[in-house]
Write a structure and sequence with these properties.
184 residues, alpha+beta, 2 domains, five-stranded mixed β-sheet
Length: 184
Amino acid sequence: MNDNKDGGITIQKKHIIIAVIIIILLLVGGITLGANWNKWFGDKQPDTTVSETEDSSKPSIELDENAGEYTGEKPKDQGGEEVGIKIPGYPTITIAKDTEDVQMALMNPEGNPCYFKFELVLKDSGETIFESKYVKPGDCIYDVHLNKPLAEGEYPATIKISTIALDQETPLNGANVETVLIAK
């Protein structure tokens, strides 16, 4: 900018070009920031990967391929209201000793409003020895591959159950179920 004879300011072509470039850069930066705000600063989404879903615009969860329909005796209905998430109890679980491939029944009761994910943690060491993918209501995991074999004995453990609503977007309350693994 130059002072002219009349005491005013003269705007040169190069000043206009610089101003336009700055405005364009600010607009592009603002659009980029707005478009990525939730990705960069939003809440973490639940564990989502590609699986069976009909609406591709929603995130989808990965269902455990070892889960199948529960074929055991259905838990007896104790009456009362049908409210909330049904969590099965596991006072003890007997498994084969000295092998990583064991049989147990980790079940998501039929009629639950959510998917279950199971994590089996040894209480003494805090070590996770099994973690599933999601299990839909009415299904059960029978074949479990442990991260390490257990020698003969009793192992206090916690089954951590994480949940996500059937809409595959909303995390719900989970549960920690105390149990004893009996390897024999």
